[in-house]
Amino acid sequence: MDNKDGVVYSNEAYCLKADRLIQGGTVAELVAPGELRITRDGQSRSVYIPTQAPACYPAFRSDLPVLQAMYHLALKELDENLTPEGTLRAGANWDSVWTRDIAYAAGLGAALANPEACRRSLESRVQGGIIMQDTGTGGGWPISTDRVSWAIGAQAVYRRTGDREWLDYCVQVLMDTLADDERVMPNSTPLRRGETTFIDWREQSYPEWMSMAEIGASYAFGTNVVHCICRRILASMLREQSAAATAAKRPSEARRCNELAERYRSEATALAEAINESFWLRSTQHYGMYRSADGILDDRTDALATALAVLSGVAGEYAGKAMEKVPVSPFGTPVFSPYRTHLPSYHNRAVWPFVEGYVLSAHASLQNADRAAHSMGALLRAALAFGTNKENFNAVTGEPDTLLNSDRQLWSVSGMLGLFYHIIFGIQFDKQNLVISPCVPRGFGGNHRLSGLRIRKMELSIHIHGWGTEVCSMRVLINGVPGCPVIPLDTEGSVQIELELNPAEGGEASSAPVLTAGEDLPIPVWDNPTPQELRWHPVPGASSYIVYADGRAIATPLDCRYKLPKQSARMRCYRVQAENRGICSCLSEPYEVAAPGARQLLQPRRVGEEAEYRVEHRQAWLDTRPCTARLDYEGVTLAAGTYRLRFLYSNATASRRDGNTCALRELFVNGERAEVIPLPHNTEDCNWESYSYTAPVTLYVEAGRTIFSLRYTPRCVNGHGFINQCMVRHLELVRLD
């Protein structure tokens, strides 16, 4: 073991040694085989940890007792998450399977440990051939659209098993799910709409005034990366199908698979280019978190999104800089930074071990051993301090004092397993080959052995000596015969690998300064603005402000007012943002200024299968029955031009944060299809008196008498499939040109 005084990793917050954690008044010590004793402020408790892995899992041995213990704890908790049906529950407090949880967990390491449980879990999240979106903001899909993260887990299972039936199943599910997305999200731009992946408590990361409808109309960096990854995985799977069809002498099938593979590869390429064009901030060399529907970029750093962009290759030449600009706390990498000021910890001001697992993999892929050591320390510290792989913990205090938490959270367990499989032992996949590329920071150096890991038809044993990121020597024996370091995945039998690492750390990235996460500024609040002058209340800590008009920055005043120029457009939307030395607030609520006559309200007129019944009290109840499947508005004579449309509605079928009953209706203009309008949950369950606007739709309308209508059509099937209800009032129509 090559470390000083037995110190594996230490910083200003804690010291991790070979057999213990020391953190202020907390000591977590491996006092005997199978016993972790956690002493906190004089009070002690013991946690049982198996001394070896169950026979069905790969065995691990190391010079460092702390590594052995945390590996065995992770396998113990993986088993405890198994359900009687053979699936993996999301955690002690989450008794069911969640799409993104199992997908990210399988990708981190669960698929290598238990591919069958991962496969069953992924299958359980498919209904009618379509991947189920987790419940969430505004009633789930299509406000949340990261269900395609399922592809990450699907690929991990296939890489582990090589099961051709699973491959064929995954290809069909992914193609059908992407087609389902296209049904309500036409491909007018490569970017895909929807809230941030996994950060689904909208009040934690979006400004308070931003409605669920507006969140659904925005473009999130992480969600777009996941969509890009999905298309790349699908293209890769289709190419494998093509190769199999060619080998079986089915040329027409092979040709079809190749054509589909090229389609999805092309979509992924266009999406990757759009991601880098839309989210990369050249001035600060990092990716922003999301773009509002009117194009303003929130410049927070999203740790998971950045790591996934690096690992998938989406980041390309930006990879090194992007990871350098991911801020950290002494206890790990926060979900996003800067934090939302005055808000409690959950996604905000928090470290999630599964996110840390992906950050760790990204640093390791860049051979940055210093930053990898920080992430490894964060994962191990938390598991030792809590005696379990917690769902999350406070990034400032290091404590699990967040709004919601869970023991043995599945993807946290998997992040710990990934530390061993993918980082210390460097198990990576490159097309049809297995590649060993370890990253062992200095304090973690020594002798590490992994045995009994089955990958397809081979049984893998790896023995690593030393520390570093570069392999000095490597010996591969395949069934006792010397083999190549790059091992084909169709290899059968025993594969033994012994390698020595060079005692040299990281690359150029390891010398870069590490950014520390901090607080943002409060959101500016309007102070009786007028069409002649914008005014807002002072923001504590702000040195200046940025004024936006229709999504473009137009001024940077030092005080809290801005005189508006004479309006040339029929409608202008203004926002303001507080700033101080590069730290910004979220955007203010929009303040709209419309020219006289530019804005009008159209009342609903008739409702029914053919709109035969008159609307009463200027509002209409809409569901999927023929008698409520169509709503027509009063006809209006319009001049030719571009108009913005919004519907005032209520959807109280569940709370704003939960459920899967986001309503959908198709907009028709003079009987012609326009687009599908999401009407997400906008209030709390059963509060049908609360109304808000849908996200705006911009349309060109021909001159003449125009009738707008909302209809329930086959394109409007939502995530629930049955409950698809809302109350609708007027249609707001604004002339833009």
Question: How would you sum up this structure, described in words?
Answer:
By secondary structure, the chain is of the alpha+beta class. The protein is built from 14 helices and 47 strands. The strands form 13 sheets. Strands 1-2-3-4-5-6 form a 6-stranded antiparallel beta sheet, with helices on one face. Strands 7-21-22-26-23-24 form a 6-stranded mixed beta sheet. Strands 34, 37, 40, 43, 44 and 47 form a 6-stranded antiparallel beta sheet that branches. Strand 19 (427-430) and strand 20 form a beta hairpin. The protein is globular.
Question: Can you give me a brief rundown of this structure?
Answer:
By secondary structure, the protein is α+β, with helices and mostly antiparallel strands. The model is unreliable at 505-510 (pLDDT under 50).
